[in-house]
Amino acid sequence: MIFLAGCGYHVAGAGTHLGPDVRTLAVPIFVNNALSYHTNVALTDAVIHELNLRTKMRILPAENTNNADAILHGTVLTETILPLTYDSSTGASSSFLVTITAKVELTSADGRLLYENKDYTFHQQYQSTQDLPSFIREESPAEKRLARDFAQTLVSDMLDSF
């Protein structure tokens, strides 16, 4: 007989930070401490979407935090956009790297800390062009990809303890 006690293996979702008593979750719009516009809303929306996809919890509007079994607070700490490549003919940047750092905290209705990560860091690259007729604004899709990646990682971390 083989025992795997303490090995870290478990059925996905079995080692959750969210106990069985957490059936409703409030997710207020993340606070934005970065000098950016709308990133906090994109991250919040992506987290709510991911929670709806992967859990059976009822996600409550931000104003219903008093009726929730748990509350997920997030803060966008920094957002930087750095040029990666340059167009040699114009000298203008042709691709950029967006980096977002955020912190999240999941607390129960009675104030117990269920989960915390003070340093989520995510990167996403996007392209730019000087050809205005064919220009497709890439910042928004890059922001959406970044928010989706952030949400998938956060919800996985909250649901699975490894």
What's the arrangement of secondary structure elements?
Elements: E1 24-26, E2 31-32, H1 39-54, E3 58-60, E4 70-86, E5 93-108, E6 113-127, H2 139-159
Parallel strand pairs: 1-3, 1-4, 2-4
Antiparallel strand pairs: 4-5, 5-6
Question: What tags apply to this protein structure?
Answer:
6-stranded mixed β-sheet; alpha/beta; 2 helices; disordered N terminus; Double Stranded RNA Binding Domain; 162 residues
Tell me what the structure shows.
This protein has helices at 39-54, 139-159; strands at residues 24-26, 31-32, 58-60, 70-86, 93-108, 113-127. By secondary structure, the chain is an alpha/beta fold. It has one domain (24-159): Double Stranded RNA Binding Domain (2-Layer Sandwich), CATH 3.30.160.150. Strands 1, 2, 3, 4, 5 and 6 form a six-stranded mixed β-sheet that branches. Strand 5 (93-108) and strand 6 form a beta hairpin. Helix 1 (39-54) crosses helix 2 (139-159). It is elongated.
